[in-house]
Amino acid sequence: MTYIIRTHKLTKAYKGVEVVSDVNMNVKKGEIYGFLGPNGAGKTTVMKMLTNLVTPTGGEIEVLGKKLIPSSFEVLKRMGSIIEYPIFYEKLSARKNLELHCEYMGYYNKSAISEALNLVNLVNIENQPVKEFSLGMKQRLAIARAIITKPDLLILDEPVNGLDPLGIRELRDLFITLSSQYGMTILISSHILGEIEQIADTIGVIRKGKLLEEASMDIIRNKHVEHLELSVKEQTKAAFVLENELNIDNFRIKEQDGLIHIYDNNISQNDIIQAMVTQQIEIGSITKKSKSLEDYFLQLIEGGNQHA
Amino acid sequence: MRSLIKLEMRKMNIGSMVLTFLCINAGIIGIFLLFGLDKDARAEFLMNYESVFMLMEIFIVAAFVIYASVLLSHMIIEEFRDKTISVLFMYPVNRKKLLVAKVLIVSMVTFISVILSNIIVFGSFAFFNSNFHYISDPITVDMLTERAIRTLLIAISSAGMSLIPLFFGMRKYSVPATITSSILIIAVIFSSIDSSTNLYSFITIPISLGIVGFLIAYLVITKAVKADF
Q: Are B21 and B113 in contact (CB under 8 A)?
């Protein structure tokens, strides 16, 4: 397995306060890595460290097979990025901004500019100065700028901010195309799971500067999506049956609601009903609940806020 | 480095720079013509070549050092203030070189402007003098050679001096601080000690200020290269 980004105990502290602490991140070649976290979790700071805009106070970064040090800049040639919000020379036209970008990147394919503008659906406005653009248009232009040189690694910090739902879908498709056709590795951050759930191969969840979980979406889906909700009066008895008759130990009793949540995916509703009936336990209802990923991540993100 | 300078120039509006240069020169020539109209002013300012040269030097250096602060604001201070510098710093280019290119442009523009303006303004003065006879003494070759050497030194020192406002402007990425500081510097060095002497008349002062300017640019760049964005 080749890794495009690896960080080891990456830490950044401002005046002694750690905003990113001990982040070990692994982004595989060719994948779309969704970087999820609430506002102020440290996503942007991590991305700034990956692009060398911010120097870490601790830990190591390896990008595209090279160790990143404060003075390295060659590796930036193979990266495209949007950090924080779209920044341009506002007085210059969209095209001129992109031309300058290509020159600085050392990329001289003249047709690439029009191609990139077409990909993000910005046409006929390339000669307008950027200051006349709306936020959504600037965002599109920023994405065009990031992908124009067909980089190996694309770092996108909340790239769909300020876009309408249709635009979000367009860009989602674009990111999938870039990943599948050009083999780009994409690191994309968001504070809204729905935005990246459908495209990400791997998700990293960050909160208060700490990487809480990093796992492939497939595993997360299997692990957390479904459970059975069983409504019974005699919960203790039912629990005893589950444990001893059916050999299930992956369940949780919610006393105040009179419910039992069963997380074992291998057991069928029929088996449970049969076992309960045999033991003469009255079942109020049994339903299959699919807990959305959203809930799961909210729980993960808010987990630390509960003072138990 | 040359390609970096070229790229920087593409972001600038060369046309308006040339226009500014021409306006400044026209303004200075205009002032001399006004002096020529008034009898008292003519007696005080246009009595000999030394005083003409001194006035020329004050006007030209003052104008272009202040103009340089405008350029610094556009090319450096605003890039940091508007964060476009963070886009530049994500390019596969040495940060130091990026900033040195910017500073070099400002210095070079000042250097060239000071030299050209001296030639243009003095040329015009000589032309008007031949018509209106402000000064009847002939210009000697010695005078011109001495003047040429001083102009060269002044141009070099102005190139450095024009960078001093960076020190004030880069503290809070403030355009007003950059421009105000350049005006203050000019005001201090050109305040008269007596009618024919000011701080700038002693060649060591412009030269030391020039060196200070280059040092400031060096320090500002070293600091900016290490900063977080």
A: yes
